[in-house]
Amino acid sequence: MLRLTSRGHFFSFDRPVVMGIMNVTPDSFYDGGKYQGLTAILEHCHKMVLEGADILDIGAFSTRPGSEQISDKEEIDRSIPALRAIRKEFPDILISIDTFRQSVANQCIEEGADIINDISGGLFDEKMIPYIGKNHIPYILMHITGTLEGMHKEEIISENVHEKVREFFEKQVNKLLEFGEQQIILDPGIGFNKTIECNFGLLKDIDKYRINNWPVLIGISRKSLIYKTLNISPKEALNGTNTLNTIALLNGADILRVHDVKEAVETVRLWLKVKRS
Questions:
Q1: Nearest by Cα to 124 from 47, 58, 189, 38
Q2: Would you call 257 a catalytic residue per the annotation?
Q3: In the chain, helix, strand, coil percent, each to 5?
Q4: In this structure, how many other beta carbons lie within 10 angstroms of the beta carbon of residue 269?
Q5: Is the pLDDT of residue 235 over 80?
Q6: How far apart are alpha carbons 253 and 244 in whole angstroms?
Q7: Which residues contact 70 (CB under 8 A, 6 or more apart)?
Q8: What's the whole-number mean pLDDT along residues 56-83?
Q9: I want to staple 219 with a disulfide (CB 3.0 to 4.6 A). Which of 135, 173, 257, 274 is the partner?
Q10: Taking a C-beta distance cutoff of 8 angstroms, is the pair 53, 261 a contact?
Q11: Can you say whether residue 115 is alpha, beta or left, with left for phi > 0 and alpha for psi between -120 and 50 degrees?
């Protein structure tokens, strides 16, 4: 389960946690461009908080296939106003920043963010691991292969996925641990540089790549393993998302990262009812 310290406060959960996605990009694969302007952003955050979100995850750099690669400055210019407004409106909620850039992470932490959610696990910016490690910042370490430019195109894993993900985690975690005790959350990177079969395998055997009993985040919300398997669109993939989130919980997931908070919270509540009955 998730336990971490940020901004002088200790956060502890005795159940799986729901992270609500707050994209402030114009081109994300599902909701890109939907929440432009602080009014729309705050309205959506209000909705997610009321529905039970434990964490709000702000993303200003789209990682969908074919997306535009923006500069550090543009990413900061998108992130900071949203972060400031959300932190002012929700002073006590955990806020995560979805970035692989140390410069963005640093400014956002100074503005009151709690967690850095790095899709590259420290690969895309060599300054990230030392920054996180020295400051002991709560860090979501996601598995990925290749480079930023080749994301979704190169080094596609088609076999031995659990071993490769675990090896990656062990390597990157050891770098972090050189700086002392860390607050690490593991994300297997479902949908990134892996075949659909491997993505499903990562849902099935979570403990095969969990290390040091750290919490595992599963982010499968409306992703291609759902809509390609069912031959539907991302907009039609809510039922599939709920189904796979249930499977993830049954197999030990600690955090669900989702677009649809209400449905994920209900999934967690029903799973808890079964587990505790």
A1: 189
A2: yes
A3: 40, 15, 40
A4: 11
A5: yes
A6: 11
A7: 60, 61, 78
A8: 84
A9: 257
A10: yes
A11: beta
Strands 9-12 and 3-6, bridge-based pairing: antiparallel
Measured distance CA(71)–CA(205) in Å, rounded: 37
If 0-12 CB within 10 Å is exposed, 13-18 middle and 19+ buried, where does residue 68 land?
exposed
Catalytic position from the list 73, 171, 223, 269: 223
What percent of the chain clears pLDDT 90, i.e. is strictly above it? 82
Pairwise CA distance, residues 81 & 130, whole Å: 26
Known active-site residue 223: yes
Distances in Å between the Cα of 46 and the Cα atoms of 51, 53, 86, 98, 111 are 9, 10, 9, 19, 20
Interatomic CA distance for residues 182 and 197, integer angstroms = 32
Our separate counts of H helices and E strands in the chain read: 9, 10
Residue carrying structure tokens 């076999």: 159
Record the pTM.
0.93
Q: How far apart are CA 66 and CA 27, in angstroms?
A: 10
Question: Six-digit token pair at 1?
Answer: 């389960």
Whether 167 contacts 196, CB under 8 Å: no
User: Mean pLDDT, to the nearest integer, of 34-58?
Assistant: 91
Characterize 144-180 residue by residue with b for buried, 16 or more Cβ atoms within 10 angstroms of its Cβ, and e for exposed: bbbeeeebbeeeebeeebbebbbebbeebbeebeeee
What's the whole-number mean pLDDT along residues 19-30? 77
Residue 94: closest CA among 144, 140, 150, 32: 140
Which of 257, 269, 273, 276 is the catalytic position?
A: 257
